[in-house]
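Section 3.1: Structural characterization of target chains.
Under the original work plan, the team committed to producing a structural model for every single-chain target entering the pipeline before any wet-lab resources were allocated. The record below documents one such target. The sequence was received from the expression subgroup and is listed exactly as submitted; it comprises 176 residues.
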Amino acid sequence: MTDISATNIPMAAGAGRYLTFILGASSYGIPVLNVREIIRLSPITPVPKMPHYIKGVINLRGTVVAVLDLRSKFEMPTIPYGERTCIVVIQVPGSTGGNILMGAVVDAVEEVVSLAANEIEPTPDFGGMPDTQYILGIATIRGGVKTLLNIQKIFLEDGSVAMHGITPQTLSNVTE
């Protein structure tokens, strides 16, 4: 598998099924094949010296999973977590083979939608100013716009979570 962080060629969203979720007033989608599960918001154990968007880790049935807050990652205003706030556990191909599990805090999960290639528009050109590296494409579903996200760029943009200091040693004290 090609490491997308090593190239400047933008990936495009392809036909398939997408899990859609809400952040603020906007709706986003990620490939359902990368979604491992959706869990209720549970206590997150902070890990020192992490970027502001990495909230910490959870113990998911014996597996330690790093959790990031997509609102923080996208520099959106912080709001208190609500009743529908949840963690989407995502499986991302690692740079050394195998998969990495990561959690993403989202405001609410919407639905799973099937999109044909002709229903997905390429990322619009915003004149070079806004950073669109996290966007694979845009889909219009029942009159609403869904931004399809590049999960590898979002979750592995710095190579891996381990580069931020999350290692087995820093996680040895995480418990259920």
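Residues 151-156 form the longest helix (6 residues).
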